Amino acid sequence: MTANAALVVVNPGQLVLEDRDIPVASEGEVLVAPLRSGICGTDYHIYGGNQPFLSYPRVMGHELAVKVLEAPPDSGIEIGETYVVNPYVACGTCRACRKGKPNCCTRIAVLGVHRDGGMTKRLTLPARNLVPSEGLSADECAMVEFLAIGAHAVRRAAVNAEDEVLVVGAGPIGLGVARFAALAGAAVTLIDRDQSRLDMARKLIPGCKAVLAAQMDAKSPEAAEAFDVVFDATGNRESIETGFGYVAHGGRYCLVSVVKGDITFVDADFHRKEMTLIGSRNALAPDFKQVIGAIKAGHISSRDWITHRTTLAGAVDDLPLWAKDRSQLVKAIIEI
Ligand SMILES: [Zn+2]
Ligand SMILES: [Zn+2]
Questions:
Q1: Is the peptide bond before 320 cis (omega within 30 degrees of 0)?
Q2: pLDDT tens sequence across 200-237
Q3: How far is it, in rounded angstroms, from Cα 200 to Cα 212?
Q4: Ligand 1 centroid – CA 133 distance (Å)
Q5: What is the DSSP letter of 274?
Q6: Which of 105, 113, 198, 272 has the greatest number of beta carbons closer than 10 A?
Q7: Which CATH class is domain 5-146+283-335?
Q8: Does CATH number 3.30.1330.30 belong to domain 158-279?
C-alpha cells in the first residue's frame, strides 16, 4: 500500500482502493493520518447511491480518529497527537454560524459526505475541526461523532430525570440517543422491529426497556400518555408519523432521522397536546466534549459498541456485505 491509498466510491455500488496524491494543507489546515474510521448508515447510503446532495467519486469517512502530521504553528495543535475530528466544516459567516449553530450552517460541508473524508492514509482539514482526544484510544475517538449526534438530540429535547423517554429505532444513532437520555437520568424505552437489535440495546443501555415495535400501539389511549419525550431515529416516514401518537400531552417530539419526502400529522392532535416538535441535526462542540467525558468516565465502552472491524483493503469486500446485512452489527470500524 502506498502513502496515500484511499477507499473510493467511484460510482454507487463500486468501491475500490486507489492511489492518490498526498494532499497539501492550505492556510489554517492540518495534514493528518487517519487511524480509524467508523462506518455509518450514511456511508452505506453513499455506497448504495441513495444519499441526496452527493457527487461521485467520493472518499467516505466522517467518524474519525486521526494523528496530526503537520499543523499551523500558531494553532495549538500538537504534532504526533491523536485527535477526534468534528467533520462539519461550516462557513462561519451565515446566520446559523453567527448564532453559534454551525451544525446547521447553510453552506455546511461534511467531511466524507460533501467533500472527501477519512477512509484514506492522508487527509487535510481545517485545524479548528480537530477536537482534543483527552487520552481516548483511537477506537474510542472514532466513536465520538455518532454518539455526539445522540448527545445533541438529548440536549435539544432538554431531557431530564423526570422524563419518560421513548426512542424509536435501535440502530447506532438511536442507541446513542438512548444512552445519553439514560445518562440524563430519564427512564428509557427503545422500540425496534428487529429482536437482535433490542437484545443489543439491553446490553448497551443498562436499565432500559426494549420492546418490539409490533407490541406497541400508538393509537391506544395509554400510548398517548406514556412518553414526555419521543425521539425518532428510524429514517422511515411511517415510523415518524406513528411517533406523534406516542407523545404525551405537553410533550416533545424530536426528529433525529430524516426522510426525503413529506411527513403528515393531525394538527388537532398536535395542538390538543401542545406538542413541541424539534429537529436535531449533526452536533455541536459541547456535544463532542460531553461524549468524550462520558467515554472517559466509563459510561460507554468501545469493546461493547464496536462489533465489527476491518482494514482499508478489507473494506472493499466487507463494506458491501454490511451494507446488505447489518444484523448483530452496532458499529463497524476500519483500521487505517
Ligand atoms: Zn455518521
Ligand atoms: Zn455557516
A1: no
A2: 999 999 999 999 988 887 777 666 668 999 999 999 99
A3: 13
A4: 18
A5: T
A6: 113
A7: alpha beta
A8: no
